[in-house]
């Protein structure tokens, strides 16, 4: 017998799509602290259009996208979607996840109902004109970060993706691992290996901000795997230990410095404090590395607080590669360091499908620790985002159980 609504963890007959589902939603009237913005609601199961795949969600990764969605800034994701003609006045987030293919839309090939898949957040249209002209999909006009810029993410009992977002789940990975690593691992992989000639080479010094965070934990390991030498920046001794276990050759506690943020004008007496701070930080980098070499690659995502230091410290002809701005997206760039020393500031957004397959294979073969350090219940999704916002969350990656009840 089929039903209109199933409990979480109660599996409908394979392929039967119920009318309604459980979801953790965000609504505009609740925008603000994530623990208040999220609520458990019953909403319609999304319809499966051409090229789309409906997935019975087993687990969902917690990542920063839905901290931003909950806050309603810097973008109001619900208003942005409604402008595009999508009617829902609620947002079901979740940009990382794993589950079972439940229905496929017209034109989908290579996927069948019952397949176990890992979902990537790269929601772009492979048939869009700019991609056909050779534009990188991450920069395509059709690109949206799934479960952030688009609706029906993994915080719903069923989620809706494009076929290009589905990657086969290696059989031996648990649902908790499968749903928790891809967005960060693939993003970190692209940052470190996607921007020729600035890819990690054996011996290269690399500065990794937030070395025990979701992105940073992968960056630290990927640098080690390539023979590079990561010095990880963190805010606690415990996280420093994690980074050393993951292969960092050194660690720096950012709490020992206070020159972060905007750079004062040269004639402002405060400039001396900034310059002393950044030089001391640089000396500390050399001490941790064990030699006087500057980072050939700086792995950025922390934003306004750290970017001036990143650009200063980066080696001549080196690259600062960034995919985010946790501490703020308006930052100071002293252009003299950029042009006089031939440095490169590279933006990097998510990853290619090849990056997704590479990191999944590394995890499957035990060469990349997925760093899933904790698992939370469905109703703890709001609290988990609040802890991430407050930077008091556990190291690595956090996963929420959706239909996989353990
Ligand atoms: P996490 O919270 O897991 O890790 C970020 C780490 O950054 C924290 O562990 C913290 O480490 C450090 N950090 C926080 N605030 C500061 C600060 N003011 N200065 C220096 N370090 C700081 O987040 P993620 O790794 O998942 O994501 C990081 C950022 O990257 C987010 O802004 C996210 O939106 C973005 N992102 C972008 C992607 C893209 O495709 N464009 C993909 C994935 C993430 P500690 O306190 O130990 O220093």
TrEMBL record:
It comes from the Bacteria. Its EC number is 1.3.1.85. The keyword Oxidoreductase applies. SUPFAM superfamilies: GroES-like (SSF50129), NAD(P)-binding Rossmann-fold domains (SSF51735). Keywords: NADP, Oxidoreductase. The keyword Oxidoreductase applies. Residues 32-393 form the Enoyl reductase (ER) domain. NCBIfam families: crot-CoA-red. This is Crotonyl-CoA carboxylase/reductase. It is an enzyme of class 1 (oxidoreductase). GO terms for molecular function: oxidoreductase activity. InterPro entries: ADH-like_C (IPR013149), ADH-like_N (IPR013154), Crot_CoA_red (IPR010085), ER (IPR020843), GroES-like_sf (IPR011032), NAD(P)-bd_dom_sf (IPR036291), Zinc-ADH_QOR/CCCR (IPR051603). Pfam families: ADH_N, ADH_zinc_N.
